[in-house]
């Protein structure tokens, strides 16, 4: 039986031209139960999940008649491409060798500290997600006659040693764009040259549009997203997905004996982390199988693609947006696969603004990745790509209030608690908390970006630092300088306070209209007593629960107001 559900808050407010029927027919499968505390993503049962991913993989696999097409051993070095489908590195290795050795290096640098502020570089939730991704990849390789060699260590130490033991001629891997990853590529290349007679072959595979198909070089990349999008949409075609080889031949076992076997799965403890139990909100399952199942669930079973544009600004529950980002970030999901599925949906069900809008958002993702090539390390620097001179505060107390969800603003506190409990936050929430930290608290945006780096399951340097530079008004596009008014955002996107009450149960007893303005008792409960009221009048929006509210209510901020 289909159920009638009110559309998420965004639908009520985004357009006054909408018909006055704020109800949509959606299948009972997509019903969001606000009282349920944990939502597994994908929401399929393990059996349904397996069936959906196997079906997708079957469609993405080449016929058995396609066999290895070369000589010797090739290594596939898996990095942020933890998938079999649409994997050019795997495809190239298959067609240039008679045996393949898939390798994953658990790089200790990923579990050290963030660059400037010393937060954990990878928090336990993302580490757990990564372990699940590796486990799933290993399982899929085993099903195709291969396996995954897992080593704890730096790729530049591990790969030359393994290449030598197996006499491999080539290491294939996907290319990255940011400085830490580029350094590793250089070191691996040198190490292979010196320690083994193998070469490193890097391929491009992280974006919807291939870098070689862009109508401009990275130096000429447009600084305005719309120009970039229109140009690629009109001048480039999206390449087809690479098919998965059916049977992968492993290398001779004497090489394996020499290196001490396939190696075990990493555990959180080995990574110096402790399990963090997620007791409410979304619980994402890592791996390509879960990613393909989520696409199947969101597009086909729940049929949510056709309403994506209306629901995408929501904040509560698994279904207001695709939730593809954690899998995209680890490369468990190829954006070109998402594109092919959107096109199939458009052929078999319907094409509308929503089906297009998922691609529109994926082009943002591409854009930030290409920008990271153009602007290099400036995306990590305080002044950003435009080198804006500004004195930011690094006040630890203020930052901790924000980080721990103890600002006294329910909308900020709820979002920050969701982030640390689940590793996820909606796009709407990210924009709001970023604006608050930077514009109301006056805190160095890089502290926020590094905290996101610690916590986000979908952390990706290009999208994270790209979006933060936009949010802080130091991005490449000078027009992107927006201030998010909390009362306005609350009224538009959480009018009944359902989102804040989910994350701040102490607000549940309050009438809905009071949940965003709970008054002093809430503030006293959450904001630390030691909190002083900053009084630097030059700063854009001194943080002070009463003055910020007054300022926001009057809409006094001189930035573009959202
Ligand atoms: C301050 C800030 C930091 C962010 N950090 C990251 C990050 O580290 N990693 C990350 O993947 N996204 C980041 N985003 C972008 C965006 O918030 C997430 O991609 C999105 O919320 C993921 O949810 P979804 O998959 O349901 O998105 P959907 O709305 O379903 O969108 C589909 C896909 O489009 C892409 N996309 C959508 N919006 C953006 C965007 N603004 N920038 C880049 N790609 C986008 C994502 O790959 C996403 O999975 C950040 C945004 C902000 C404002």
Given the C-alpha coordinates, what overall shape results? globular
Distance between the termini: 39 Å
**What's the β-strand tally?**
11
Structural class: alpha/beta
Strand order of the largest sheet: 6-5-4-7-8
Strand content: 5-15%
SS field, number of helical segments: 22
Quick tags:
562 residues; alpha/beta; five-stranded parallel β-sheet; two-stranded antiparallel ribbon; 43% helix; disordered N terminus; binds flavin-adenine dinucleotide; Cryptochrome DASH; deoxyribodipyrimidine photo-lyase activity
Topology:
Blueprint: E1 3-6, H1 9-14, E2 23-26, E3 38-41, H2 46-59, E4 73-78, H3 88-95, E5 99-106, H4 124-143, E6 149-152, H5 155-166, E7 170-174, H6 179-195, E8 199-203, H7 225-235, H8 253-259, E9 281-284, H9 288-301, H10 308-311, H11 325-329, H12 335-348, H13 353-375, H14 396-403, H15 410-422, H16 427-440, H17 445-455, H18 461-471, E10 482-483, H19 486-493, H20 498-503, H21 520-526, H22 545-554, E11 560-561
Parallel strand pairs: 3-9, 4-5, 4-7, 5-6, 7-8, 10-11
Antiparallel strand pairs: 1-2
Helix pairs in contact: 2-9, 5-6, 5-8, 12-13, 13-18, 15-16, 17-18
The structure holds flavin-adenine dinucleotide.
Flavin-adenine dinucleotide is lined by residues 312, 321-325, 328-329, 358, 361-362, 364-365, 368, 426-427, 430-431, 434, 452, 456, 458-460, 463-464, 467-468, 471.
Keywords: Chromophore, FAD, Flavoprotein
Binding site for FAD: 308, 321-325, 361-368, 458-460
Function: May have a photoreceptor function.
Task: Note down, in words, how this protein is organized.
The chain starts with a strand and ends with a strand. The chain has a five-stranded parallel beta sheet with strand order 6-5-4-7-8, sandwiched between helices. It has a two-stranded antiparallel ribbon with strand order 1-2. A two-stranded parallel ribbon has the order 3-9. Strand 4 (73-78), helix 3 (88-95) and strand 5 (99-106) form a beta-alpha-beta unit. Helix 15 crosses helix 16. The model is unreliable at 1-30, 532-543 and 549-558 (pLDDT under 50). It is an alpha/beta fold and 562 residues long. Helix content is 43%, strand content 9%. The chain has 22 helices and eleven strands. The chain binds flavin-adenine dinucleotide. Flavin-adenine dinucleotide (FAD) binds at residues 312, 321-325, 328-329, 358, 361-362, 364-365, 368, 426-427, 430-431, 434, 452, 456, 458-460, 463-464, 467-468, 471. Residues 535-549 have a biased composition (Polar residues). Residues 72-208 form the Photolyase/cryptochrome alpha/beta domain.
């Amino acid at each position: 039986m289909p159920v009638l559900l009110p559309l998420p808050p965004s639908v009520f407010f985004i357009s006054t031209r909408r018909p006055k029927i704020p109800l949509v027919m959606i299948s009972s499968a997509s019903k969001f139960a606000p009282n349920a505390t944990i939502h597994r993503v994908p929401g399929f049962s393990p059996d349904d999940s397996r069936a959906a991913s196997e079906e997708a993989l079957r469609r993405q696999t080449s016929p058995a008649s396609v066999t290895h097409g070369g000589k010797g051993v090739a290594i596939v070095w898996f990095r942020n491409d933890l998938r079999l489908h649409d994997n050019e590195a795997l495809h190239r290795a298959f067609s240039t060798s008679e045996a393949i050795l898939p390798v994953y290096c658990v790089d200790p640098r990923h579990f050290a500290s963030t660059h400037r502020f010393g937060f954990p570089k990878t928090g336990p939730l993302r580490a757990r997600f990564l372990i699940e991704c590796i486990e799933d990849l290993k399982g899929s390789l085993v099903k195709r006659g291969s396996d995954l060699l897992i080593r704890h260590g730096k790729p530049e130490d591990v790969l030359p040693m393994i290449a030598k033991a197996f006499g491999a001629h080539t290491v294939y891997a996907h290319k990255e764009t940011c400085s830490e990853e580029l350094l590793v590529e250089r070191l691996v290349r040198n190490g292979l040259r010196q320690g083994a007679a193998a070469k490193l072959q890097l391929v491009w595979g992280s974006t919807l549009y291939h870098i070689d198909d862009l109508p401009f070089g990275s130096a000429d990349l447009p600084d305005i997203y719309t120009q970039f999008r229109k140009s690629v949409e009109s001048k480039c075609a999206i390449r087809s997905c690479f098919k998965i080889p059916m049977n992968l031949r492993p290398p001779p076992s004497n090489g394996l004996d020499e290196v001490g076997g396939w190696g075990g799965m990493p555990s959180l403890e080995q990574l110096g982390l402790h399990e963090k139990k997620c007791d409410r909100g979304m619980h994402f399952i890592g791996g390509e199988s879960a990613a393909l199942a989520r696409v199947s669930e969101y597009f086909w079973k729940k049929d949510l693609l056709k309403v994506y544009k209306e629901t995408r600004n929501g904040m509560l529950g698994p279904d207001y947006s695709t939730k593809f980002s954690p899998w995209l970030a680890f490369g468990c999901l190829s954006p070109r696969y998402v594109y092919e599925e959107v096109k199939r949906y458009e052929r078999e069900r319907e094409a509308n603004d929503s089906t297009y809008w998922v691609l529109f958002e994926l082009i943002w993702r591409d854009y930030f990745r290409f920008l990271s090539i153009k602007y290099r390390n400036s995306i990590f620097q305080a002044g950003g790509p435009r080198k804006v001179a500004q004195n930011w505060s690094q006040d630890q107390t203020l930052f901790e209030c924000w980080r721990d969800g103890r600002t006294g603003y329910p909308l900020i506190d709820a979002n920050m608690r969701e982030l640390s409990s689940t590793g996820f936050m909606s796009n709407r929430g990210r924009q709001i908390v970023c604006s608050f930290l930077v514009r109301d608290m006056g805190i160095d945006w890089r502290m926020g970006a590094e905290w996101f780096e610690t916590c986000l399951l979908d952390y990706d340097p290009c999208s994270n630092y790209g979006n933060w530079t936009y949010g802080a008004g130091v991005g490449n596009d000078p027009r992107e300088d927006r201030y998010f008014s909390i009362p306005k955002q609350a009224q538009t996107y959480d009018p009944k306070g359902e989102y804040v009450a989910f994350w701040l149960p102490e607000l549940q007893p309050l009438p809905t209209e009071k949940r965003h303005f709970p008054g002093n008792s809430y503030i006293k409960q959450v904001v630390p007593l030691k909190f002083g009221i900053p009084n630097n009048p030059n700063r854009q929006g001194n943080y002070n629960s009463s003055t910020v509210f007054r300022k926001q209510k009057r809409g006094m901020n001189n930035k573009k107001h959202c």
